[in-house]
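Follow-up to my earlier ticket, as requested here are the two runs.
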Amino acid sequence: MTIRTWIDSLRTREEGQTMAEYGVVLGVITIAAVGAFLLLGQRIDDAINAVVALLP
């Protein structure tokens, strides 16, 4: 394997690109989850309290 073929093989590898895509998707999901919890926080708390009140 020559240095030129080695460099060409590094350019065509996609592992780093795939990891970056996973990172972006994870970031978007995290932002969406935090936003949902912030918007629904009080309602979630009310639902949990209602369930706890039903327990003996």
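Run two:
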Amino acid sequence: MIAGAPDPVAPFSHAVEADGWVFVTGQMPFTDTANDSPYPEGIEAQTRQVMENLQRVLSGCGLELANVVSVRIFLLYFNEDYERMNAVYAAYFPVGKRPARTCIGVSGLARNARVEIDMIARRPQS
């Protein structure tokens, strides 16, 4: 578990490492560490908050977004939110250095969030 990251909404770890691979559990747009803290309004604000929460988890593992190799994004309102989520998401990764990614429309997310994002990162090899 990572200090300063939002409390889990279910029985899981913030991240698990195996052989230098770091699997970061999907984060919700909680604005505080309590898993009943409010979500910001709208997909742009929720995407920013999820990315900030993911960066807290990565930082707690001694990593940063540059170490991320794969991302999965789950959208509650895919058709409505896809383009606006992408505009926010794109700002976190430089062109030419973006991770592989999958984006999926879903029928529900914890606490009725609009977006959840998980990541796989790779620890630098020495």
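The only thing I checked on run two: The longest helix spans residues 43-60. Let me know what else you need.
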